Every structure is written in C-alpha cells, then in structure tokens.
Amino acid sequence: MAPHTGLEPGTGRNRTITIAHETFGDPSDPAVLLVMGFGTQLLGWDADFCRMLAARGRYVIRYDNRDCGLSTRLDEHPVHLGDFITAVTSGDLDRAVAMAPYSLRDMAGDGMDLLTELGSARAHVVGSSMGGMIAQKMAIEFPDRVLSLTSMMSSTGEPEYGQSTPQAQQVLFSSRPGDRDGYVAAAERELVWASRRYGDAAQLRALAAASYDRSSYPAGIPRQLAAMILDGSRAEALTTLTVPTLVIHGLDDTLIDPSGGRRTAELVPGARLLLVEDMGHDRPRALWPHLLDALTEHTASADPLDAERGPSIRHHRGPDSVVPR
C-alpha cells in the first residue's frame, strides 16, 4: 500500500503555509490525522505503523508541522531559544509573546486546512507529545471537524502535571551536532525517555539518519517551543469537550510524566485512559498491536458509519487500563 505524498497550502496568520504530508489507504475510509510532536518530522509516525492502521480500514494522514521537515519554514522570524526561555522564566511574558510568530492554534489550523485540501470534512485526530497538545487544540477550536481525539504521551499545559525529569529536559534542550555523523550519534541520548524494556539505540539512530537526510531544520524548534509554552493551560477548555476521547500514556515516560495523561483524562468528560507498561516517550514496535487495537476500537466507536460495520477487534478494556507485558 504505497503512500501518497504531497504539499498542500493553507492560510497562516501572516502568510501562506505549505504542509508536507503523506497518506496511506483508501480516501473513502474514515480519515485519521496523525499529528507529530516537537521538532519531529512526519517520519516519527513510522510508515509501517501507518500502513498497518490503514489496513484496518482507515485513511491515514501524517504530516510535517510548520517549521519542520518539508513544510513552510518561517525564517523571517528568528527566535533565539535562550532569550525566549529567559523571558518566560523571568515572567516577562509580553517579551516572550512578541518573539512568537504563531500560536498553537495556528498549528492546529494547519491540520484543519490540510484536511480541507484533501477533501476530508472531519477526521479522527491522533496527536503525540506536542502533537497531542495540537490535537487537543483542534478538538477545542474546531470541534465540528474532529470525530474523535486521541491524546498520546501529552499533557494539559498545566505546569504541575506532566513535568520532565531534569535528565530528560537536559536532553530535550541540548542541540545536536550539525554534521550527519554527530547528529545521528546524538540520537542515542533519547534513550533517557524511551521504554526501559524496548528502548533501541539502533532505531533511534536510524530515525535520526532518515530525518537528517530528508530535512534537518533546527531553526524551527524555538518557534514551535514558543507556540507550545505560550498556549498555557488548556484545563478549562478540556472540561467542555464533547468529542470521544482516548488518552494513551506510557508508564516509562520521563519526558512528559504520566501525570499529564492522567490529568487529561480526568478533565475531558467521558475520556478513556490507557496506561501502557513498557512504553516510554516512544512507540516500541512490540507494542504496536496494542496501540493499533486501541486506535481501531476508539475510532470505530466514535464514527457512526464505521460502527455500523462493527469494530475490527472484539476485546474491551476498562476506563483506566494497563496493557500487560
């Protein structure tokens, strides 16, 4: 099942934004929009994972956020990471806001514009890490476009939930070398937040190599960070959601503590929480069957037309369940 690759334009706050994307499966199937996280290209959603989800009767769309991969780069708005962090930590929010050329809502709008260009009126939205925050924003700001929400390894924007360990935060904000060999070798640092059982340095290096070869763009990271931080708490808005919601979080996650997932599920009315053993801030291949089952079941139950055909899986778990080893 070969993916379709394309570039679709959308309207940004001050300019046209072009979004690079790939699709898998039949466009007549229910659409699933996969939203990637901070500084990570669409490659973060493994192509095999996308194909397997598409094989379950889903039209899968993965894409690069703005300022990442092959999507529009806002080079005309340079943001110095250190200056931005200093402004935020010192409480000078006016200065921090002035640095940010776009918001998390703008990033959510990019995904909605992409759906429009692809002819999809509504979609099941699945977001990972910062992508989970963007997906939450999609459900908050564009509820008529979202069939269901899956927030994976993410949080609510409240500072007391989902905090990183000092070691994970240090890796997150450490720049990678500019040369290919150094860039690829530095990917092993991410084992600090990976599954303790399934963490794989070779896979991290392979993703880093593919990302570097496709389109490495570290200059976009501070602008994405600014959008994420300045969005603030979504707690109150999350309590108003009526969209069917699944929250998935790995118990080994040290980049966004599982309290972020628990809090998200606590706030969204009727949300289901799936805590996953042996999963960190990653999606180990060994756990794909569990994750695919959860996504298939959730999207089937949230889509009236798909529900008429019956779910693709038959087992059901409770509202606060843990996938066993």
Reconstruct the topology from this structure.
Elements (H helix, E strand, L loop, with lengths): L3 E8 L4 E9 L6 E5 L11 H8 L4 E5 L17 H9 L3 H7 L4 H14 L5 E6 L1 H12 L4 E7 L13 H7 L7 H7 L14 H15 L5 H10 L4 H4 L6 E6 L8 H9 L4 E5 L11 H15 L1 H6 L10 E4 L2
Parallel strand pairs: 3-4, 3-5, 5-6, 6-7, 7-8, 8-9
Antiparallel strand pairs: 1-2, 2-4
Helix pairs in contact: 2-3, 4-5, 7-8
Structure in words:
This protein is α/β, with parallel strands linked by helices and 325 residues long. The protein contains 13 helices and nine strands. Strand 5, helix 5 (130-141) and strand 6 form a beta-alpha-beta unit. Helix 2 (81-89) runs antiparallel to helix 3 (93-99).
Oligomer: single chain
Q: Care to count the β-strands? A: 9
Looking at this structure, what is the CATH superfamily? Alpha/Beta hydrolase fold, catalytic domain
Second rung of CATH, namely the architecture? 3-Layer(aba) Sandwich
The CATH first-level class comes to Alpha Beta
Q: What is the domain total for the residues?
A: 1
And the CATH topology? Rossmann fold
Kindly name the structural category: alpha/beta
> Which spans have pLDDT < 50 for at least 5 consecutive residues?
307-321
- How many helices? The count is 13
**What's the shape?**
globular
State which percent range the strand residues make up.
Answer: 15-25%
- Sheet with the most strands, sense and barrel status: 9 strands, mixed
Rg, please?
18 Å
Mean pLDDT: 91
Give helix % range: 25-40%
Succession of helices and strands: EEEHEHHHEHEHHHHHEHEHHE
The order of strands across the largest sheet is 1-2-4-3-5-6-7-8-9
**Could you tell me how far the N terminus lies from the C terminus, measured between alpha carbons in angstroms?**
30 Å
